[in-house]
Amino acid sequence: MGEPARAIHGGQLGLFTVNLQTGRLWQYTGEPNVWAAIGDSGAAVATDSRALYRFAADGKSVWRWSPAGDWSRIGGPAAAIAANG
Questions:
Q1: Are 35 and 51 in contact (CB under 8 A)?
Q2: pLDDT digits (tens, 9 = 90+) for 23-56
Q3: What is the Cα–Cα distance from 59 to 83, expressed in whole angstroms?
Q4: DSSP 32-78
Q5: How far apart (Å, rounded) are the C-alpha atoms in residues 11 and 30?
Q6: Cα 54 from chain centroid (whole Å)
Q7: CA angle, residues 57, 74, 12, in degrees to nearest 5
């Protein structure tokens, strides 16, 4: 990514980082020094073995990102998110 990170999330699904300045989410592609932008981080991010989840900055929705690259709304509003497995 080459930029300072606010947070790093990793697990079976892969390695993800949140850019400190822009709040954008990045996924490590597996190639040295190559990251792909996948969206905005929102207020919080969590990951498990199947998906990456984000809690919208406005608190009104929870979204799931699949390895296919799609974001889908799965709920909300919420106070926080957590993932396991």
A1: no
A2: 889 999 999 889 999 988 888 888 888 889 998 8
A3: 17
A4: TT-EEEEEE--SEEEE-SS-EEEE-TTSS-EEEE-TTS-EEEEE---
A5: 13
A6: 6
A7: 90
Question: Which residue do the tokens 């905005």 mark?
Answer: 40
Residue with tokens 């608190």: 59
The structural domains of the chain, with segments of one domain joined by +, span 5-75
Torsion, CA 77, CA 5, CA 69, CA 51, rounded to 10 = -60
Q: Token pair for residue 83?
A: 């993932």
Q: Which two tokens stand for residue 14?
A: 């892969």
How much is the pLDDT for 38?
A: 92
